[in-house]
Design goal:
heterotrimer; A mainly alpha; B alpha/beta; C mainly alpha; B: alpha/beta; Rossmann fold; three-stranded mixed beta sheet; three-stranded parallel beta sheet; 8 strands; 16% strand; C: mainly alpha; ABC transporter involved in vitamin B12 uptake, BtuC; two-stranded antiparallel ribbon; 12 helices
């Protein structure tokens, strides 16, 4: 994170260079398939930025953000196929409805913490495909919806051949990612960011300091849902299809793995996280015949063993920025203490479990 | 083992039973027990009754006793030892089904002793058995501790604040000060020594 | 619509549904019990419990299909294999992080969830297969109500499993040691109990119970990698409803959930596919309104 007043490990020069690469890549070097893959990466990165805000910075575990991606994806699919909308125009609607979903989830989630919140959101992830299947007149049920013209842009660039559909989706995703990234960055620097972090670091203390749990938790859920909805919308465009299993438990886990790999509570984490999540199943295809679950599962376990702070966290540590790391990457406080390599609390009394 | 609060008495016991990591060496019966897990130390014959008694509160009195003998396979031997325990604590047989949490402090202490006995230990580590108990109960406990030492032939390492009663029962005594042995001798010697009593034992 | 409801809600129909509900409820109760066992030992929910059960059920299927072994031989063999499997998982995956905070453990079980989900698909594919039922399909009539051997068999098996587990924990030395290790790990160590191995045993038992659940569920639906996903959700619902640290709660919760789902699925129009959502709503509802469930104690959060 580029903290106010601190030294910047990822300097403007490096950022600018990467951005330049990203902008020129599809035009000069990347083929269609790679471009489309990266379009997926941007879509996932957006959703992971949102999840990171919720889990890494506000400390609320959500294993159900796949449901909000589903909302976004289906909104886009329905508006494009049934109402003839231009895909770009569906994004705000997708964002809006997903946000509503996020707020709705936020209400009961206010009272839940840790394991129980994880359980509830996990249950959401498992049951949402069923819900989609149920309302089949609207959603097309198990068959899903094929979106023709998903890659069309409203400026006619794709139709006139100036851009391929993949390139359009790539740049659309990239632009939105950059905008959302900058938004999140400024949000986290503001008082809102401070409030969110204080909730993560200890709710009772936060309340004592006058932070409204209701307002900020709901805000975090809403924003993460919004981002997930947009991510889902872009994902639908890239796939040209949505189905009840397009955004199932595997995706929910993938989001979490992506956030954790990059480092919960770091700003740049979502990007390597999204890269991992999209690319690793492809490289594992030979071994696992394209079962992304196995890859995500193994990655998740390894992260928990070795690098509780994730890859970007490890990178910061390499640069010797341990102080900054401790301040920012105490994502879910319990997780930060997780390293099994540290001394176990031998001798701690059993007292908490005994009956009064 | 006597000494002021924070002198390291409890920590010493925990070091012996393996509950805290240690540097240096600890030998028991000629073999090193440093760095061994608590459950293995217990299996070597060292029974530790911790501060606060470690009562398995939600379980019944009988179950607590059964946990004392849980490592043993000799049914007949366990039965006999159980009867010995009931001789020491004749109030127990009527209350076997009671949840241990409902016992009084003194009764829980006796339960802890009984449970430790059922392990047939070679060494019994007792951490402040008199803590929080009324003086009459404390007397009873000390009498039982002495009996255990004499009749069951169990070596006992007793940590106590209540120096007077403890010294009477002890064959050897050590006074700990900030983690080091400041004074040692037989129980009688320390009890008679005015200087020791005043500076270390407070009476 | 009202007349449809009235016709459907004949006494016989209701009894049949209730029996069916108890039967499926027994399966949910078994899996919920497996979850509670691990929760009591580690304060964590094993999110992979269902997928482990699916995996062992696939192994059972392979034994049935490729070795042509009879069901009543495959059943105990699979249970033993599942037990060993559970012990292995605990020793290999969980043990290095035994002392880690709850959320880390939860995420690890999620990782296991993903791995087993993928493994089942990888090894056996996504072809939907039938799984043979050990019970005859003819109905049996009791007091004029037609019940299936299937339902009664399920109730019987679940009851046997639950009674055996209860006897193990309340009457045996090992069960006592496991209870002690779960509730008072440090004191148990001082009494010589190898707490780590008790945990492994707990995982083994949970896996074994899960295997039973899987082999009983498979005949009534189809065998594919998604077999236990919904059962897992209902088991969570049952565990939460009954109290996440209460074995009795798991059983009561399981039967309740089973009966409710059966009744809702039959008598509430169009609600059949929404049962998973119903489970989700119950979970949220209980956690928000009464986190301790019916029989458990609310988890006290220390600041």
């Amino acid at each position: 994170m580029l903290a106010a007043g601190g030294r910047r490990p990822i300097g403007w020069g490096v950022t600018g260079f990467l951005l330049l690469l990203a902008l020129l890549g599809p035009l000069l070097v990347l083929g269609k398939f790679q471009t489309l893959l990266l379009a997926y990466v941007w879509a996932f990165a957006i959703a992971i930025v949102g999840l990171n805000l919720l889990t890494g910075f506000t400390g609320q575990i959500s294993l159900g953000n796949s449901a909000f991606m589903a909302i976004g994806g289906y909104v886009t699919a329905l508006l494009v196929t049934r109402q003839g909308w231009s895909p770009l125009a569906t994004i705000p609607v997708a964002a809006g409805l997903a946000t509503v979903g996020g707020i709705l989830l936020g209400i009961p989630a206010l009272k839940l913490r840790g394991l129980y919140l994880g359980l509830a959101t996990f249950a959401l992830a498992i049951s949402s495909p069923t819900l989609i299947r149920h309302f089949d007149t609207l959603t097309g049920g198990s068959q899903g919806i094929y979106i023709s013209g998903a890659g069309k842009d409203p400026f006619g660039l794709v139709e006139s051949g100036q851009l391929t559909a993949e390139q359009w989706l790539y740049y659309l995703g990239l632009v939105i990612l950059v905008l959302f990234f900058l938004f999140t960055r400024s949000l986290l620097r503001s008082d809102v960011g401070r409030a969110l972090r204080s909730i993560r670091d200890g709710e009772t203390v936060a309340v004592a300091n006058g932070v409204s749990l209701t307002y900020y938790k709901t805000l975090a859920f809403a924003i993460s849902a919004l981002f997930a909805g947009v991510g889902g919308s872009l994902d639908a465009m890239a796939t040209s299809y949505v189905g009840p299993d397009s955004f199932d438990v595997t995706i929910a886990l993938a989001l979490f793995v992506g956030a954790a790999i990059g480092g919960l509570g770091t700003q740049w984490g979502p990007i390597p996280g999204a890269l991992f999540v999209v690319y690793s199943p492809i490289y594992a295809q030979q071994i696992f015949k394209g079962r992304p679950d196995i890859v995500y599962g193994v990655l998740l376990i390894l992260i928990m063993y070795v690098m509780p702070q994730g890859a970007v966290g490890g990178f910061y540590r390499l640069l010797g920025l341990r102080g900054r790391l401790r301040r920012q990457v105490v994502a879910v406080p319990e997780l930060a203490v997780a390293s099994p390599l540290g001394p176990a609390a031998v001798g701690a009394e059993d007292a908490p479990r005994e009956a009064p | 083992m006597l000494g002021a609060n924070g002198a390291g008495k409890t920590t010493t016991l925990r070091a012996i039973s393996g509950m805290v990591k240690t540097g240096g060496s600890i030998r028991f019966g000629g073999r090193s027990i440093a760095g061994i897990a608590p459950e293995e130390v217990a299996r070597r014959g060292i029974s530790h009754v911790p501060e606060g008694r470690g009562t398995l509160a939600q379980m019944s009195l009988l179950e607590n006793l059964q946990m004392g003998s849980c490592l043993r396979r000799d049914r007949a031997g366990i039965k006999r030892d159980l009867e010995r325990v009931y001789e020491y604590f004749p109030w127990m047989p009527q209350r076997l089904a009671q949840p241990a949490a409902l016992l009084s402090g003194g009764e829980q202490q006796m339960l802890a002793l009984a449970r430790a006995l059922l392990m047939r230990p070679r060494l019994l580590l007792l951490d402040e058995p008199s803590l929080g108990l009324a003086p009459t109960v404390v007397q009873a406990i000390f009498r039982i501790v002495q009996k255990i030492n004499e009749e069951e032939k169990v070596t006992i390492l007793l940590v106590e604040q209540n120096a007077r009663s403890a010294l009477r029962a002890a064959s050897r005594a050590y006074v700990l000060e900030v983690g080091r042995i400041a004074v040692s001798g037989t129980g009688e010697e320390l009890a008679r020594n005015e200087a020791v009593r005043r500076s270390y034992l407070g009476y | 619509m009202a007349t449809e409801l009235l016709l459907a809600a004949s006494v016989q129909g209701v009894v049949q549904q209730i029996v069916f509900g108890i039967a499926t409820g027994g399966l949910y109760a078994s899996l919920a019990l497996a979850l509670v066992l691990i929760y009591q030992a580690m304060e964590t929910l094993n999110f992979a419990q269902g997928e482990m059960a699916t995996f062992t059920t696939f192994i059972a299927w392979s034994l049935l299909t490729y070795l042509h072994l009879p069901f009543w031989l495959v059943f105990p063999v699979t249970i033993v294999l599942a037990f060993l499997f559970g012990v292995l998982i605990e020793r290999v995956v969980i043990r290095p992080v035994e002392h880690a905070p709850v959320l880390t453990l939860v995420l690890i079980t999620l990782g296991l969830f993903a791995i087993f989900n993928g493994l089942s698909g990888l090894i056996w594919g996504y072809v939907v297969r039938p799984f043979p039922s050990p019970f005859p399909t003819t109905p049996i009539f009791i007091a004029g109500v037609g019940l299936s051997y299937q339902d009664l068999g399920l109730i019987g098996v679940s009851a046997v499993v639950l009674v055996l587990i209860w006897l193990f924990f309340s009457r045996t030395r090992l069960g006592l040691m496991m209870r002690s290790a779960a509730l008072y790990p440090q004191m148990s160590r001082l009494l010589g109990v190898r707490v780590g191995w008790m945990l492994a045993l707990g995982w083994g038992l949970s896996a074994a119970v899960g295997a039973v659940s899987g082999m009983m569920v498979a005949p009534i639906t189809v065998l594919d990698p998604g077999l236990m996903q919904s059962v897992l959700l209902y088991a969570f619902t049952a565990a939460v409803l009954g109290g996440i640290d209460s074995p009795i709660g798991a059983v009561a919760g399981g039967v309740t959930v089973g009966v409710l789902l059966a009744l809702v699925g039959t008598y509430v129009p169009h609600a059949e596919d929404l049962r998973l959502v119903f489970g989700f709503l119950v979970i949220i509802g209980v956690l928000v309104l009464r986190p301790g469930g019916l029989f458990g104690r609310a988890h006290v959060e220390r600041v």
